[in-house]
Fold this protein.
Amino acid sequence: MKFSHKVQYYETDKMQITHHSNYIRFMEEARSSFLENVGYSYKRMEEENIVSPVIDVHAKFVKSTTYGDVIDINVGVKDLTPAVVTIGYTMYVDGEIVCVGESKHCFLKEGRPTAIKKVNMGLYEMFLKYKEEKL
Amino acid sequence: MKFSHKVQYYETDKMQITHHSNYIRFMEEARSSFLENVGYSYKRMEEENIVSPVIDVHAKFVKSTTYGDVIDINVGVKDLTPAVVTIGYTMYVDGEIVCVGESKHCFLKEGRPTAIKKVNMGLYEMFLKYKEEKL
Amino acid sequence: MKFSHKVQYYETDKMQITHHSNYIRFMEEARSSFLENVGYSYKRMEEENIVSPVIDVHAKFVKSTTYGDVIDINVGVKDLTPAVVTIGYTMYVDGEIVCVGESKHCFLKEGRPTAIKKVNMGLYEMFLKYKEEKL
Amino acid sequence: MKFSHKVQYYETDKMQITHHSNYIRFMEEARSSFLENVGYSYKRMEEENIVSPVIDVHAKFVKSTTYGDVIDINVGVKDLTPAVVTIGYTMYVDGEIVCVGESKHCFLKEGRPTAIKKVNMGLYEMFLKYKEEKL
């Protein structure tokens, strides 16, 4: 699934490029948009008491970007185990890869890690469906 | 009361100076430290169900700062009415003024704006005491 | 001129609302978009060696917003003197005002404050034209 | 080497914990402090035209932190090849691990990736010395 972010002035740094920490935020934006598009917005999750913290984040920076660049982000499900979903992100500017990232998320029920299936079968099946898709 | 913040790389922007939005955050840091030092930390306020949103913020930028600069912040009570406290900030680098700011805060009880005295007499008296001090 | 910003998760704070410092960033986003739309993008300014630092920023917070809210921002020229342009912002969610802000900008030529007309007559005339418009 | 960061209110999010993207910034703060302490501040690097972009960043979140927590960060050299240095970070609150991270950095000379030894032998030897140390 596709998402775009236009780099803002406040996201650049003294090296005159996008500060690397912001790509972690772009990943959250893309993930949030992805979940909303497939019908599982964070808001719905919160209403259903699904708490899903980030337990791991990784980004590889291939090419710098800067103010005004439009970053196109391909977001999808990279891996799925009973307890953890891995979301993958490939970011492009003008068709060239600038950053590749992934984030891992577990699911809590009453504060304890729980299998996704047990938390919400519909959410599990959605992740499974998107896992098949080419990122 | 005094507080210091060392400018981080991620707080600079493409103009190679501290991004102006960050001074609003330095003001929060200084205010938080001020309240903690006088015994009314945000944590204590939260425990006592005192909710105090920012209703107005203003900053005047006199001189730019950049990565590595240590900003010394003088923080104090600039004005106090029954409903609103105004906190003032003067920021220096090496004794020269770089930014002057202020923030206004109201106090809520059960979600409604309430006189500070009614919310917490001790807090009101503390603000009154620091109002006398030269900023 | 109109601009929209969707509040991201990373822009919220422990009070479960949009952190107040982010509105200063939304103002920059709206200003950047406004300048781009009228043909004076920051990029063009940089190419023409126009440096225009923020010298003053003010925001009044009327109503809190949170994750997922779409903030519509009306941006325009509020005031114009030979040396300083004041940009005004009115922010709405679902038609209700949430924040009113303004930022002041001066113009530098070879590092010294200079009348806007002297820096760039086209830019001055554009500001003058938009000053007439209702914000 | 040790470094501390006190979590600020603006670093928390709607889940009432420190937003995960901020740990990447804490890593930069710790790295910056580490380099300053061993005599290779970013400022000195910039003066010597050493450009060292982040090419990879990874963080594993073990335990959430929140406003007011003091995060103690152990920072050191985890790995060193001719072209890439890996900086490692272990973060604690009250002696308990909250986050483990690492960042990889290459070195550019006239815009091209270059062996660290060729860029600056003193920097290479400093990294080598700290590689021996237990993180």
